[in-house]
Amino acid sequence: MNSPRNKKEGETSWGKVAGWYADLLKDDNTYQTRVILPNLKRLLDLKKGEKVLDLACGNGFFSAEFTKTAKVIGVDIARNLIEQARKNVPSANFFVSSAEKMEFLDDNSVSKIVIVLAIQNMESPHLVFKECARILKPGGSLHIVLNHPAFRIPKKSSWGWDPATGSGQAGVQYRRIDAYLSESKEKIQMYPGDAPSVHTYSFHRPLQYFFKTLGNQNFYVNRLEEWSSNRKSEEGPRANAENFARKEIPLFMYLEAIKK
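Predicted structure:
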């Protein structure tokens, strides 16, 4: 993953938690494993020998799957994560670099670029998209997965509970949104409940930002999908309402943008 772009290569908040992140992805019940990866495989539809850039690749979790079909290049600004990726996926080529400037990649040299759960941590997406447009072949595609910008706004969204009424109506689990259109930057604790001094920054941008910014960088959005949680609550008085809300209010948004 790439942290805010004002850091030089190798210095990033995600690099500080490389071990924790690796342990997290060993669990086969993560959203990365159960929600994001199956959907990405379906939508990428990788062809044999196709060249793919895994941008903000972290420790190579997704790169490992892509290499089963494609030729993979992985890029991340966190040196610790790239070191892990090289061990985890020796068949891919990994580089420590900012997402805004990847001079080791030629113009029009890659068929597909994937950015998973990282654009929300990048300070200047317009520069990242500009660089992606340079690298992609004409007609190539950029695949972005991020926390849903309409429902997961850092420190301005939360779950709420509306209890049963006197008429016998069941309680409702709802999503409270306190702000949406305004862009924002928030300091986020890396692992909730522990190590409060370890943090990163998360940026909120409304949906229109991505359409406008991609359009300004010679892309058009070809596909949008919204992905909900695969998890279920344990039995209890709120379980049905929680499960209903979990399915109705998506966690993630996927965009496919095509280079014109």
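Summary: The chain has a mean pLDDT of 89.
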